[in-house]
Amino acid sequence: MAQDQQGTPGALSRWIQRKMNARMNRKIRGGRGEFMGMDVLILNTVGRRSGQPRETPLAWFADDEDAWLIVASGGGSRHPDWHVNLVTHPDRASIELPGRAAVPVTPYVLDGAERERAWKSITAAQPRYEKYQRKSDRIYPVIRLTPR
């Protein structure tokens, strides 16, 4: 059996996550998009190596009138797979909001003052993100998604 990389989820954890994600995706498509007090969307990406479609439920935060912020938390000591897929194939990304059809989006990884402003807004809405960030050895990317 292959050894998992230190600080990354193991096979059982990944299996459980896939099952939970599939259940959450069904809820979102059915019109219910909330989890643990957060609004949730489905991020559609394409696997960086496989080229296969990937669907990931993620908490989102409003940014301006027509944009969404997502945070690449989770994934252990490395960025989550969905983040790597998103930056590898940004032109193939879309989101699904509860009960709505997919909307093609353009991702933009925030940095500097833009990231700091967005991070303050996110952690004001959900202080748990600040707690998660303190426990991590990497800085969580904040990504703005805008409709194409």
TrEMBL record:
NCBIfam families, A to Z: hi_GC_TIGR00026
Q: Provide the family line.
A: Belongs to the F420H(2)-dependent quinone reductase family.
Its recorded name reads Nitroreductase
Q: Which PANTHER family match?
A: F420H(2)-DEPENDENT QUINONE REDUCTASE RV1261C (PTHR39428)
Which molecular function GO terms apply here? coenzyme F420 binding; oxidoreductase activity
- Specify the domain of life of the species encoding this protein: Bacteria
Cellular component terms (Gene Ontology): plasma membrane
